Amino acid sequence: MKITTSLENIKSFGGLNFVSDQYDSLCLSELITEHLGKRPSQAQYSFSDVIKNLWAITFAGGDCAEDIQTNLKEELKQIQNLNVCSPDTILGVQKLLAEGKEIHISPSKTVNEFSKHSTLNALNLAFLVETKTLTTGQLHDFDYDNQFIPNEKYDAKRSYKMKDGYFPGVATIGRHIVYIENRNGNCNVKYKQAETLQAAYDLLKSQNIRIDRSRMDCGSFTKEIIKVVEANSKRFYIRAQRCDELASQIREVAKWETVKVGLLNVEVCSIEYAPFGEEKKYRYVVQRERNKTGQTDVFYNDNFVYRAIATDDWDSTDQEVIVYYNQRGAGEKIFDEMNNDFGWKNLPFSFLEENTVYMILMAMCRNFYLIILGKISKQVSFVKSNFRLKKFIFRFVVVPFKWINRGRQKILKLYTDKPYHLLLI
C-alpha cells in the first residue's frame, strides 16, 4: 500500500456552506441585532457572528466551544460568510447575555432558583414567526412539560430523582420549542408553574399566536394552573391525579365502552367531576385496562389500571380525547433531540443563568435545523425530512470541497456525485 499526500486546500464540511447560506437568507443576523442590540464598536464579532459560530460547531459534529480551536478552525475558515471566532469569545458572549436568576422560598421553606430570559425567548419566537413556521392569527396546539437534566454544575440541586441537575419548563408548538424557563433541580414542577405558563402564553399573544388546545401531564394538575390554561386556550387536556372522591365516582360507572387506542383495546367512559372542592365541573375521560399482575388495586378494589384526563372539550369522543392526549408523547422525542443532538446533555457553564442562555440558543438552533431540513429535503432526494442531526451531518454536511476563484466568479467545487447543484448558493 502506498500513501501520498497533497497540500491542495480541500476541506471536509462542504455542506456547511449551504447551512451558512440558509442562515443568511433567513435574515437571522438582522433579527438577532434587533433583539439583542449591537456590541460595542471595539468588539470584533457581533452577537450574530457568535451564534453562527456556536451553531456551526454543532452542524460540524462538535461537542463544545473548544472544538472550534482544536478541531474545526481551519475547516470553518473556509465556510462562506462565517466570521470564525475563538472559544473564549463564544463562551464569553453567552455569559454576557445571562440575566440574574430569581430566588423564591416555597411554603415548605425550599429555596427555588428560577432563570428566565424574556429577550432570548422573544428572539426565538420572532424567528419562528418571521420564517412563517408559526402563522399569526391561526390556531395552534400548545404543549408544556418539565424535563430533568442531570448534571454536576456548581449550583445544581438534588431532585426527587435523587440526582443533581436542572429542571427546566419547556413549551412547544408542534415540533418547535417556543418558550423555556430554567429551574434548579430541587424545584417542584407545580411550584409557580401558573406564572410560567402565563409568561409563555403572553409571549405567544405578543406575536398574535393563538392557542386552540393545551395539553399537559399531571404535573400541571392544580387549580391555579388550570385557571391559567383555561383562560388562554379554547380547550385543554390535563392528566388528572387520582383522589378518593374521584375514585368513588369512577367505581359507580356501570357502562364502559371498548375502543381501540393504538394497539390496545381499552375500556373508556366520561364523567362530570368538580375538582379542588370547587363547584365548576369538567369532563373527565377515564380509560381502564387490566393490569398485568392480576392483583387487586386497593384504591379501586379491582384489577384495572385507571387513567383520567380532565378537559373542557365536551364534543370529542372518549377515544378522540385519549388518542389526542397520548400524542403528547412526541414531546419526549424533542427532549431526546435536545439532550443528544443539541447539547443539553453537556451544558458548558457552571451556573444556572448562564446555561439558560446556551439552552435557549440551542433550542433556536434546533428550530433553525428543522426549517432548513424541510427546505433541503424538498430539493434533493438524499436528504429526508425526518433525519436526526447526526445522519444529516453524515449524508449532507460531510462532503470534500474547495473554493475556486475564476475571473470575477467564486465557484464552490464539491468532490461528490450527489446533486448539490440543485441547491444554489
Provide the fold topology.
Layout: H1 16-25, H2 28-36, H3 47-59, H4 67-70, H5 73-76, H6 87-97, E1 102-105, E2 111-115, H7 118-130, E3 139-146, E4 149-150, E5 157-158, E6 164-166, E7 169-173, E8 176-183, H8 193-206, E9 210-216, H9 223-232, E10 235-239, H10 244-251, E11 257-261, E12 264-273, E13 282-290, E14 304-311, H11 318-326, H12 330-340, H13 352-379, H14 389-397, E15 401-406, E16 409-414
Parallel strand pairs: 3-9, 9-10
Antiparallel strand pairs: 1-2, 2-8, 3-7, 4-6, 5-6, 7-8, 10-14, 11-12, 12-13, 13-14, 15-16
Distance between the termini: 39 Å
- Radius of gyration, CA atoms, in whole angstroms: 25 Å
What is the element string, with H for helices and E for strands? HHHHHHEEHEEEEEEHEHEHEEEEHHHHEE
* Global geometry: elongated
Strand order of the largest sheet: 1-2-8-7-3-9-10-14-13-12-11
Question: What class, by secondary structure content?
Answer: alpha+beta
Describe the main β-sheet briefly.
11 strands, mixed
- Residue stretches low in confidence (pLDDT < 50, at least 5 long) are none
Q: How many separate helices?
A: 14
Overall pLDDT confidence:
94
Q: How many strand elements?
A: 16
Helical content, roughly? 25-40%
**Percent of residues in beta strands:** 15-25%
